[in-house]
Amino acid sequence: MTSTTDPTPLRIESGRRHAVWRRGRALDAVTVGLIGFVLGVIGSWRPSLWYDEVATVHSATRTLPQLHHFLENQDAVHGLYYVVMHFWFELFGASPLSARIPSAIGVGVAAAGVVVLGTRLGTRRFGLLSGLVFVVLPRVTWAAVEARSYTWTMAAAVWLTVLFCAAIRATTGRSGLLCWLGYALGVTFSTVLFLYSATLLIAHAITLLVVRAPLRTWWRWAAACLAGLVVASPLVRLMVHEHGQVAWIPALDRHAVRSVLGYQWFLEAPVCAALAWILVLAALAFTRHRTLPGVRVVMIPWALAPTATLVAASLLWRPIYLDRYLTFTTPAVALLLGWALLQFSAHAWVSRLGFAVLAAAALPAYVGQRGEYPKPSGMDFTSVNDYLATHTSPGDCLLFDPKPAWNPTSARLAKDADPGPLAGLRDLELGRTAASQGSLWDEDLPLAQVQQQLPSCPTVWYVADIEREVPEHIRHTSNEQWGLPSYHFVDTDDYRRLAAHGFRIVDRREFHVSQVVELKPTEAAPR
């Protein structure tokens, strides 16, 4: 089977057709970008913030000197994103909605880039279809409600590839120089934004090999890469020095196949993943070789080379592969699916129907991602924070479980999710603040060290793990495994100390994985 709509490798529109693109087809990119933004924003205020997102809020709301001190010690890999979010939060505050809107904007920018790249490599129909596929892919809709830099890694990757393709064509004169200069700047930006994005350069090298680029193009590409990486090198060295940041990543095992083929691009959407792979494999198997170049030279290396690099490094060196770390390869998958749909579409309505089927298969994941507790472990920090903000009184005391079974650190993250409404409460166990010591989280003091302050508390609010009668076991899409032992608050050392000081439970509210326990001195408790 052949298709007249197949994109030819690195065929950038020129002359009259390029003028048409500049006059009218920019509207396609803007329209699809707006669709992606709107889809990203819808429901983004509902999910409770989870560990990574609270890290964004807690880090980016510091002063710039405090943030600089922190990044010298930890999390430099997210430094550029934190700096941008610092200014964003100063303008719009740090609610779940405001924290996630930049991610939705990133989806829009990336979606527009997919349309531009698809149109320039092939046809307007190919660009539009690929852009629409992109905005409904489960990994994209997940990233849109994640207050991290993932959507911007996609945007950086797709626009860097646009510059790459343009630079290959414009190999001489001022336009070529500007394209390669833009490419070098793009390499710097994407690498500083997220270090693993640099693996996209491997994909671009494979593209040059396949198209048999002349030696002068190789030299210009290498010079641009080198210049971009040299500019980024001070931050890269700092990121490498902080390699302990990824020491928690689990080793690959038999579940890696599911992570790569499913979670990486089709998170929590197995039907969508199955349909997508069937479609792509069928297109590769049943279309003639001459219809394959556009896929072979751009999309396949982009999708597979970074993935193969991280998987190989994880197997041969140390674990560094996580499904979400390859989010920046998702535009390539969208382009690949757009191409595959066109291979079986003699008429436009066939490709539209195919897109509708893919979108319908992705819909359950989209809805689930916008529930109240869709994040890893069902973390419920925002819900706990909202409850405390509406039920506590100034002067009340706060205590936090030092290590809930499902959380890497203290339950104080419920306060860190939005400390403003809880500013009038006394955080008894707060030691040195994260800002003062240049760390990610505040220091937690044991209750035994501060229990002498309890008699001055009119009410104690204790944020604890939820009650569990029997142990539970969970496996995240990151392949992390968490064992959750049975838990009863009244059996903890902290409760025994509170009871010894005359406090008794007067109320408790359970959420998804947390509970808030209200305790009062015995003489104040209702009888």
TrEMBL record:
GO CC terms on record?
plasma membrane
Which UniProt keywords are listed? Answer: Cell membrane, Glycosyltransferase, Membrane, Transferase, Transmembrane, Transmembrane helix
Q: Where are the transmembrane segments?
A: 26-45, 101-119, 126-144, 150-168, 180-206, 218-240, 261-286, 298-317, 324-342
Write out the GO biological process terms: lipopolysaccharide biosynthetic process; response to iron(III) ion
Q: Where is the signal peptide?
A: none
The main place the protein resides is membrane
Q: Does Membrane show up as a keyword for this record?
A: yes
| Any one Gene Ontology molecular-function term assigned to this protein's record | pentosyltransferase activity
What is the name listed in the Swiss-Prot or TrEMBL entry for this protein? Mannosyltransferase
Membrane protein topology class: Multi-pass membrane protein
Q: Which organism is it from?
A: Speluncibacter jeojiensis
Which PANTHER family does the entry link to? MANNOSYLTRANSFERASE YKCB-RELATED, UNDECAPRENYL PHOSPHATE-ALPHA-4-AMINO-4-DEOXY-L-ARABINOSE ARABINOSYL TRANSFERASE
Q: Where in the cell is it found?
A: Cell membrane
